[in-house]
Amino acid sequence: MHIDALLADLPASLEIPAAAVAAARSDDLVFVVLDDDPTGTQSVAGLPVLTRWAPEDLDWGLTQGAPAVYVLTNSRSLSEADAASRSREVVEVAIAAAARAGVRVSFVSRSDSTLRGHFPLETDVLSAAAAEHGGAAPHLTVLVPAFPDSGRITVDSVHYWVVDGEAIPVGETAFAGDATFGYRSSNLRDWVEEKTEGRIRRDDVAALTIDIIRSGPERVAGFLRELPAGTVVAVDVVDEHDMRCVALALHALEHEGMASLLRIGPPYLRAHIGQEIAAPVTADRIEFANARGGLVVVGSHVPLTTAQLEALLADRPGTVTVELDVRALIDDRREAHLSAQADAVARAIASGTVIVHTSRELVTGRDGAESLDISRRVSAGLVELVARVLELAPPRFVIAKGGITSSDTASEALGIRRAMVVGPMLPGIVSLWQPQVGPAVGIPYVVFAGNVGTTESLALVVRTLAD
Q1: Which fold has domain 3-273?
Q2: What pTM did the predictor assign?
């Protein structure tokens, strides 16, 4: 369906300033965002992000004066048991740190705007853990996967991916065929029933539709106030003002003692804390520690990433390019292959930017668990290569393309334990971090999701940093 036809009969969007939302939220409440890969920071600016959750890390994050702190759990790359354990750990440490800092915390589950991730596992665990440590489970679980900046919107509970003006139900896209987190349903109510294996029926999922949202925050609050405890709410979103309207309603309910657990795509947190849409970061705002070339690491295999890589190579035909053979990374050739390719990158980076990418063949296992294991082994190979390059010839900047790739590159290869999110490199997408501790201090780090932007987006970001 063409996007114009989909939106033609909707009520007019409201005009809600970000400042109104900021004024409505509680000053003593900090949102701790458990991000299942680092790409969730791409829509925000000026917020701390942690890749570790020791007490001293949460103490630092909660004393930065920010309304939210991101904790990179990387749980999308983990098994269900490990993902659950990690969520429990973060909740326990964060609640203790909040007591020391004299603030309250509310937990947010940030996941993929194309519905891939550990749901309902993570919201179930967070709800139970919050109740265990805080005394009361959240009244509602609010599902907001929309990412309008990148063409993901929800209308009449159906989640769409908009490409070239065509609104495609997300269940009909390649994302729904994910080897580990695949699904069939595009309607979020059906998707909840599918993912909970019938434990939550689609008719028990509340549909917070555009017509309600665009009637104003009081109407939204009234709708939500009447829902039974434990209800999952599927939220329609077409633009930023829809999200701000929902945020105003949720803040009003929070003041009444009705807490909600958010399961969201990247931009909703920005709307929820009342942050303006940040302008893209320009070259004059970026601090570099050295004059070597940069390092661009591409691990994602989604079709959009492959197209972006091809466009980057066409845009920079003279740039040294090093390929990591996926099959070599998962067999006995691994060490020799990594050693040779890392040495090649380190030599080339002395005089210019280097592009490293995995071979474009998608190697999968016999089931979701085996496919996830292959993904982890390939990502570990990329991480090892980046770590070796960092030791041999620290780059001017690092760009990591893909969810697991960018997470492991940040926490393992570059040793980024704490960072500040400077802002987006492109409107609403692609996050720039400045590491605050560790060996990568002074090396700007760009987190670039696999499934966002246009064909030219990667080339544009490289131009900003390299030219």
Answers
A1: Rossmann fold (3.40.50)
A2: 0.89
